[in-house]
Write a structure and sequence with these properties.
The structure holds two protein chains of two kinds. By secondary structure, chain A is of the alpha/beta class. Chain A has eight helices and 14 strands. Chain A folds into two domains: 138 residues, no CATH class; 188 residues, no CATH class. The chains are: A alpha/beta, B mainly alpha.
Chain lengths: 355, 201
Amino acid sequence: MTLNKEQHIAYMKEVAETIFAASVNIAYGDQGLKDLVEITGVASIVYKYIPLDIDYQVIIYKAANSVHSISKLTSKTPSKITDISSLAANSSKRMAIEVINSKEIRISFEELFDPLTISEESVVYYFNKGVEQVFCKTNAVALPTHPDSISHYAVPTFKSLEAALEHYKVYRARRSTCPILNNVWFDKANRILFKDGPEKILRQSLYFFLSDHVRGEVKEEQNVDDSKPVDIKISWDFASHIALIEVKWMGKSIVSLGQRKPNQNMNAAEAVAGANQLADYLERHKPYSVTQFTKGYLVVFDGRRWQTSTSSIAVNKTNGLYYENREVTYTPEHHNTRADFAEPVRFFIEPIYTS
Amino acid sequence: MIQSEAVFDTLFLGSQLQNRLSDFSNYELQIFAYLSCLLSLYDGEPVSFWGYSFIKNDLGSPYSREINESIEALIAKREIIKSDGDFLRITDYGLSELEVYSSFRSNVSRLKFLQAACESINLISYGQVKESISQEPILKSAGLQEQRRLLIDIDSPAFSILYDQFEMLKVALENKFSNLVMPAVIWLKYLGDKNLGKYDS
């Protein structure tokens, strides 16, 4: 559907209303926005050095006046810190941080104050036991949640693709917590069978995750040559290092419960075929990339369940997790015979089992 | 010859990105330089203001030869060092040189664009900025074409679409925000949401 000009403007207005920084800017003016940028900058550095968890309470603010200085809001003398990395050695789970400037913060450990006592004039960020807010005068505006992180300012970024894939495997694929990935199931309530043609959703889920988290150039479906595409291509430092990712899946897909046969029933042979296909891609990619180091990655989403059919609506733990630790045997083992072929990665996705 | 605006932009963007991400890559510098350039257009500057140009690279991302040459020159002068594989860091010497360059009148006028581009990752995520930029009309249109060509070309249809978006954004924001980072993040978020199909129905 093509939108007209008025509809685009309406959507832009809608976006403006959802961005918490806009609310801060309107409430406190340009100085408030500057303060917010400083506060959030400090938050992302602090969260690199503390093991932020659900039971933490962290206030970070910029005092609008001397009455709001941290020494006046708490009873103990605050610690002056010029190197935030020193927080790594601190075990406190409750801290109030006043941002003095880009090089100095002052911290009160174990003693917090009510943000509402200063938020009429000062911009305050508050992480309170898993809920993240920025105060706009007397209103607390919730920050958007992120599937990979407890905080908007602790979202991980990865230089290494292997580390990113490991994170995806544990935090997004394992329990289908990625919102895109979770649309792949015929029934989200049991995660036993895929919808028909799940490839696109699986690829998109991985693509958006990698694009969001990997510090390289991530592109979906790049042509290796005139005929076949790989699913995802990642380049670091302008193409001196390139990763080609081929996505495959295993499991059964259906369009209606109880249909005579699954639309597709993919098993280990599909993963092996994918590895051969990728090796072939890499061969054909060579003439195009004499100055590049290219490495192939086979990623296999595993939604196989033991003893299930197209009419299954429940699976027990034994059958649901039957394939959890059953790795695919690849013949030939391209990952052991070629330097440009990474060890295949399997994302086993758990069903919701009954016992 | 090394282009002075590109040298300044490399040092400034590099220092800001390393504050936020610990270090930076050539690719990240190019993305944020390109975003800064687009913000100058939003703010009413002519195309010639930016001082150097961008083309589309093989994967469809913006690439400026001038930025690339600046990085190489600054590495040779030890103002930038390689820190972790292909990642880079500005040295203390580079930071002190940046302080000197920041006072030059020609650079002062670029600061607000560079700053707004970098500050955008304090307000929306790094990944969102990166992904949304690839959805702006010029890069999106360039991605469909094979040949390398100048990205900011006032005669291209994509350039008109970009200007139309900027005009619509100005109408939508009704002059509520004077700091450029706000239109920047609202526009980027709009591009990202549009790509995810949020406005399709």
